[in-house]
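Project standup — Tuesday

K.O.: blocked on the structure for the chain from last sprint. Re-posting the sequence here as requested.
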Amino acid sequence: MPSRSQALVTASQLGVLLLGARKSRQLTQAQLAARLGLSQRRLSELERAPGTLSVDQLMALCAQLGLQLTVQPREQAPPAAGPQTSEW
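H.V.: unblocked you, prediction finished:
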């Protein structure tokens, strides 16, 4: 299976990625939550609002979904015109 990486810059992008990975493994929220020792409701919250994930939860999710977390410097991009928005 070829490796592909996905650059994430917002928490909402992480939620979309986690949801897509779960579905591609044909797991329900209840099934994945049971593997993680979470309730289905909590897993649903984490997929919708991944900014509330702890690092430990993120690493456990990645392990169950066959994902690897890699952190690297951002590529230099030209400055954007106009005000920048942030989730912070």
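K.O.: great, moving the ticket to review. The domain at 11-65 is CATH 1.10.260 (434 Repressor (Amino-terminal Domain)). Helices lie at 11-24, 29-36, 40-48, 55-65.
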